[in-house]
Amino acid sequence: MNKVIIIGGGAAGLMAAVAASLNSDDVIIYDGNEKLGKKMYITGKGRCNLTNACDISSYFENVVSNDKFLYSALYTFTNDDVIKFFEENGCPIKIERGDRVFPRSDKSSDVINALSKYIRNKGVKVVLNTKVTGILTDNGKAIGVKLENGKSDCADRVIVATGGLSYKTTGSTGDGFKFAKDLGISVTGFRPGLVPLEVKEDYITALQGLSLRNVSLRIKKDNKVLYEDFGEMLFTHFGVSGPIVLSASSIIGKHLETSNTLTGVVDMKPALDYKKLGDRIVRDIDNNKNKEIKFLLSGLLPAKMVDIFLDLLNVDTHLKLNELTKGKRQELVHLLKEFAFTITGTRDYNEAIITQGGVNVNEINPATMESKKVKGLYFAGEVIDIDALTGGFNMQLAFSTGHLAGESATTD
């Protein structure tokens, strides 16, 4: 039987071990952390959004980088396969809004325990608190790994599942990128992905802590729309965050590297077009002519936004509704439909859910996850230049590429 060493005990590494253990009784995971799945513990706010239950063909619409490379991996080990694995291994699941899949217990530890128990029952050896420092090769073939303690361990195949650069405290320190570069395998540029955005305007940061639901967000470069989505967002002390903002960051990140003139536009009333919203405001004014403008705004906005809208409209707090000019009324409609701000950058890797960039997919066989330059060397998960939007898609990419790598490493 092939001896397989897997570097990294996260989602991709653990699923690689699951697959490899089906065909080999000599599988070892090396992980520098004190426990397996350290980053998985904090995903989905500790609930672990482990996949998405949408039709597998829809996955490619949610992949940001190199979707075509993932066809074999996603169709070989699908989201249905992931759900079946956890259901059969003591981790019942539930499906929530947006087809997001979570453990029924809402505990990420149950996902990790299901994987850990499975591989241990299969005899996979787990070596924790042990950092791999390099890949051993001979005549263009991977033959083992070098360890931090100066020792080495030989193997027939090596799988690199070391993650990216996000959440460094979980062990994602870019080791896999270094391993690849040391072997002459090209690695693309990196940037934080699924990360909050920094904003220029003080009136945005003044809204810190406010969450908006059912709003539309567009991000534009000049007059070109780069991103548009509907959902939930959050204001912070530095700018904006929340699901639709995190997804936006992965789309616009490359544009922020060359431009600081991106504009975010929030539609506070996406269910109403300009005319319907204008008509509603006219009716509200007619029915409350002697009320102050604050009364009108309080019916249209969260309380925290009322004073900011008054400032932006440049009207007095005590202005009576029957004194509101047609011009100011039109300004209000415009502001509700296009609440704009300037995006200046993203937060760093410590706040990024994933890393964009990684080992160049052109140098990996998509049918096996094996390196085209070094035989017997496989890559899986976030270390590869693949990423997707929020909703469980990135976990599925880790599981699919990990499973394919583990299967290929023991059957090729």
Distinctive features:
alpha+beta; six-stranded antiparallel beta barrel; 13 helices; 25% strand; elongated
Summarize the structure in short.
By secondary structure, the chain is an alpha+beta fold. It is built from 13 helices and 21 strands. It has helices spanning 11-20, 59-62, 71-76, 79-88, 108-121, 175-182, 202-205, 243-256, 274-287, 293-298, 303-313, 326-337, 393-411; strands at 3-7, 26-30, 51-52, 63-65, 93-96, 100-103, 125-127, 132-138, 141-147, 152-154, 157-160, 191-193, 197-199, 211-221, 224-235, 239-241, 262-267, 339-346, 354-356, 377-379, 387-388.
Strand-residue proportion: 15-25%
Structural class: alpha+beta
User: Could you tell me how far the N terminus lies from the C terminus, measured between alpha carbons in angstroms?
Assistant: 12 Å
What is the arithmetic mean of pLDDT? 95
Shape: elongated
Q: What kind of sheet is the major sheet?
A: 6 strands, antiparallel, barrel
Unreliably modeled segments: none
CA-based gyration radius? 25 Å
Spatial order of the strands forming the largest sheet: 13-16-15-14-17-18
Strand segment tally: 21
What level of helicity do the residues show?
25-40%
Give the number of helices.
13
Layout of helices and strands, plus pairs?
Elements (H helix, E strand, L loop, with lengths): L2 E5 L3 H10 L5 E5 L20 E2 L6 H4 E3 L5 H6 L2 H10 L4 E4 L3 E4 L4 H14 L3 E3 L4 E7 L2 E7 L4 E3 L2 E4 L14 H8 L8 E3 L3 E3 L2 H4 L5 E11 L2 E12 L3 E3 L1 H14 L5 E6 L6 H14 L5 H6 L4 H11 L12 H12 L1 E8 L7 E3 L20 E3 L7 E2 L4 H19 L1
Parallel strand pairs: 1-2, 1-11, 2-7, 11-20
Antiparallel strand pairs: 3-6, 4-21, 5-6, 8-9, 9-10, 12-19, 13-16, 13-18, 14-15, 14-17, 15-16, 17-18
